[in-house]
Amino acid sequence: MTMRLLIGQTGAPTSVVNASLRGFLEAAADHDVLALRGGPDGLVEGRLTPVTAADVPAAATRHGGSWLGAGRRAVTEADLDTALDVLAANGIEGVALIGGNGTMALLHALGERAAATGRELSVVGIPKTVDNDLVGIDHCPGYGSAARYLATVVPDLARDHAAMAGIEPVRIVETLGRSVGWLALAATRHRDDPAHAPHLVLIPELAFDRAAFLAAVQDALHAHGRAFVVVSEGAASEMTDDPFEAVNHTRIILGGVSRALAGLVSTELGVAARGEVLGMVQRSSGALASDVDRAEAAEAGRHAAKLLADRATGLMVGLHRDGGQTVYDPVPLAEVAGRTRPVPPNWRTTDPADLGDFHDWLSPLLGQN
């Protein structure tokens, strides 16, 4: 039976988010689909337009950005009621949203509010975040491409640093990641070139120890004549004022812990240090996106459409690995909404040499392209 469905995205784009959109639309070809424009603001304001797979150019799946537009909003109960009125007025029977833990919290709340007010509505989440912090899954679409970008460019930054060590003995490279260290760990992968691997990595899951950090930098200087450090933007949070736990991530995180740490090194050790913030290019670089990540993002979209067509609700498409293959099994939104998955204890370290198992886990996600 034909249904009227809504597809949207909230939160920031990734380099493969458009693949999820196109995958959803391809699998929903027998249904009437509307596109949500502009994230949660568009949901409350009713910015819905008809859409088919033919409207989304295939080229869009190979670029960064979001064909749907993105956005964030701290949604109130009044907003939920307004959104439900908008959905009812447009005859929407099923909603799929692409996003992270904040998006899954919005979807869960929308589904719960619909049920509480006697409205029939199916809600399904399509996972998307470069931070890789969604619970209940092995890895998240968007992460593999951001990780591939870091695994590609950070070793070259290390080579550049080796050339410049005489005038810049310490370089500290900052990754995205908010309150988790998955991306910073990805930046330690060096493709069998240990001479240009980071000497130190700092992640939010480990409390920052000022004395130990300075000692580790000093040790690297003595051993290698330079110190090359990777830091997650959420590590050493006491060095910055960025609130990584803000509701729905509505405050822009500007970055800067690398520069604060570089200033600390210069002051305490008396050596020149540079703080390098890699910024939004990590999530937007279509040129270095992983083919595996792009294919998985599209498949996650297809599975979401199938779940809605079966009138399933309260679920997020899950990704798990079984014998080297990715399996797409649903995860209850109640188990995902608003929760954050940190790096597990066995991968929490400041020494990149201890991360062999993590690199083995990561490698298949980076693709071959």
TrEMBL record:
Residues 5-307 form the Phosphofructokinase domain. Its cofactor is Mg(2+). The lineage of its organism: Bacteria, Bacillati, Actinomycetota, Actinomycetes, Micromonosporales. This is Diphosphate--fructose-6-phosphate 1-phosphotransferase. GO terms for molecular function: 6-phosphofructokinase activity; diphosphate-fructose-6-phosphate 1-phosphotransferase activity; metal ion binding. PANTHER family: ATP-DEPENDENT 6-PHOSPHOFRUCTOKINASE 1 (PTHR45770). One of its GO terms (biological process) is fructose 6-phosphate metabolic process. InterPro entries: ATP_PFK, PFKA, Phosphofructokinase_dom, PKF_sf. Gene3D superfamilies: 3.40.50.450, Phosphofructokinase domain. Keywords: Kinase, Magnesium, Metal-binding, Transferase. It is an enzyme of class 2 (transferase). Transmembrane segments: none annotated. Belongs to the phosphofructokinase type A (PFKA) family. It comes from Micromonospora terminaliae.
